[in-house]
Amino acid sequence: MAKRRNSYSFFLKFISVLWFCFYLPCFGRDPALWPFEANDPWNHALGSGAQYTTITGNFKHNGFAGVNCTHWSHPVFIATASDPVHSITSPGFNGSIHVPANARPDPESDAHLHIIDETHTYVVETWGATVDGSGNISALAGFQNALKGPGVYPTNHGVRAYGGSAIGGLIRKGELTNGIPHALAISMYGNYLNRNGPGGHCYVWPASTCDGGNGSGYSSTGNLFMGSLLAIPPEVDITALGYGTSGPNYQAAKALQDYGGYIVDQSGGDFILYVEPAANSETTNFSPQAVVPLLKVVTNNTPTSIGGGGTPRRPEPPPFEYPVAVFGSEKRPIGLTGDINDADNAMVTIYRVNGQIINRFFFDGTHNASSSLSNMTSRKARLAGTGTYVYEWIIERQGQVFTKTGRMCVAR
User: Fold this and answer.
1) Which of 17, 109, 114, 300 is the most exposed place for a label (fewest CB within 10 A)?
2) Do 57 and 157 lie in a common domain?
């Protein structure tokens, strides 16, 4: 049997750890808002080994910086299980999915429209989309791309000229205010690009194709190619650009210095960035003109040295989900030797992030610890609702108290 605990001291220690638990953050990355693998080029920061070279060819170093948001942009709609089911018909994708009632394509001739499924697992990306009176969608091209997979592909798998996902590099709602944690999508005049890329291609990695498949509308000079990575070198003080240290222009400049931007399309402008229409209210005074003369080409961006290799300027993205299995040797309190046994007093509490207690379990020498832990795992699986939870162990062994806090997320 376990020794009798000093309930008062145990309670004080419990309260101190409980306070910490209430304020312990635990957020998995939502792929609908921040998609693609952690090591995908869209999510990989520039590295200390990046080699920056002056842009050559027809590019205008004092050219106009534009922002496409409500026109010539990429509307993204996230479906729920209560949304009506409609068909999407296109070369590349044909199927029926939940589609929000307000989903409409961009009003310009490219008519992009992208629907994320209700489980936040994939996105159906379309070009040349129209919505009929019944809500069914027809498009000139369509692809289904996994949100937890890569954003780029070895062959064409998207509705943008570079061949990857159309939502890669798109500035999403909240990012111009809170920070942009990924590389940016860039377009420019076709004659700024060189069709004669390395290996006889009209593109460089991570692009897998180019406009028309051959870049016939491109030039034959310069070091800009479809897929090129452009960035602001690390020695540039972006706080001296007159943007301050917040707001859309500063956030775009910071993203271009930390992650860079990939050329994904040709357009009718010198240098264009893309913001989803849902973020239109954040684009007031967004005109990143000062970044254009600062841009360089990163010449050693490859699949084996993403962002130029070396130490990344920013940490990799958080996981999509924290481990659901929270019990086991890897989760034992620090300093506790061996598994919990029948001689231990133990208490495990599971909270919501706001501090609401969901379940609390007590163990002492009158219970079998291993079977109790298995029971806890099954109870955790039956927690009401989805979202993020915090767990806490307090274990007393031979007069010593060990504590451990951690996190878990219940998937959608």
Assistant:
1) 109
2) yes
pTM exceeds 0.70 for this model: yes
Q: Give how many domains the chain has, as a whole number.
A: 2
Lowest mean pLDDT among 223-227, 240-244, 320-324: 320-324
Q: Residue 90: exposed, middle, or buried by beta-carbon count in 10 A (0-12, 13-18, 19+)?
A: buried
Residues 32 and 120 sit within 8 Å (Cβ to Cβ):
yes
Is residue 44 a part of any domain in this protein?
Answer: no
Cis bond upstream, residue 233 (ω within 30): no
pLDDT single digits (tens) 325-357: 333 333 333 344 444 454 555 555 544 444 444
Phi/psi class of residue 240: alpha, beta or left (left: φ > 0; alpha: ψ in -120 to 50)? alpha
**Least reliable range by pLDDT among 26-35, 135-144, 176-185, 240-249:** 26-35
Q: Position of tokens 């609702």?
A: 385
Q: Which of 254, 281, 308 is the last residue of a domain?
A: 308
Tokens 């061949």, residue? 163
Tell me, yes or no, whether 70 and 159 share the same domain: yes
- CA dihedral (369, 371, 373, 375) positive or negative: negative
Helix (H, G, I), strand (E, B) or coil at 90: strand
Structural domain boundaries enclosing 131: 52-308
Pair 225, 360 in one domain? no
Residue 277 phi, psi dihedral angles, 5° rounding: -55, -30
Under a CB-based contact definition with an 8 Å cutoff, are residues 100 and 83 in contact?
Answer: yes
